[in-house]
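New to this. Help decode both lines:
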Amino acid sequence: MTPKLRSMIFLVGTLVLGGVGLRLSTPQPATRSMAELRDAGIADGQRFVLTCPERLTQQTRRRINAAQPGALRPKQVYARVHRVSVCFNPDAGNCLRPSDGALRVADMEGDVVVPSLRRDLMGVDLDAGNDADGGEDSVDDSLQFRLDDCSVTTCPNFDAGDGSNFCSRLNRIALAESPCAIPLCLGSDGGWDDNAVVDCRATGPYGEQDGGARWRGCNATPSQHTTGAACVPVACGVLAGDDLVEEWR
């Protein structure tokens, strides 16, 4: 990483991948343009797709809705999000093995920069810029949390499913498939009802002793262990003080 680029980023936390901690940073100030980052050498690092649980802001929701209409529920606050990210290690080599996306060496130090993510966009004119990467309108300020619950995918492996070139733009994001589901426990008034019993039951280790399906209340369960027409995707966890079902109240 060049000294110029390092001066343009702000450390926000430690990203844990495979038990190894990497420094996670975002560009600062929030007005920093993609053109400035490219000029400072952001494109010299190894691109990959970072997928983390996030608490969505209005700007992130707007960006996802523009790219994937209807993918978010009207009041959805939590989701897992794919973001193009860039990794740098001290010897200027790849951080991840191209074959499987694993860290190249277990004791490696490194920096991960998420170009699309900015902290505190208050007061920023999001329509002011429009460069080759989409200008300031293509950045957002969602909060990535549970950085020990993120996953990485190399760009070739991520694109293999649909033949797209997701990593061609450094600011690209997309809604990821939710790993958990919850029964849609709505009452007669259309609001959330914890006493409702609907067609969504748990299986496997969350089901009966023999693995069969059972009702376990209006609780989130890993998606692969749910069955029924009334199961809806949700985040597996939220920040302390937040209510997972608030979006249906």
Summary: The two ends are 47 Å apart (CA to CA). The first helix runs from residue 3 to 6. Confidence is low (pLDDT under 50) at residues 129-136.
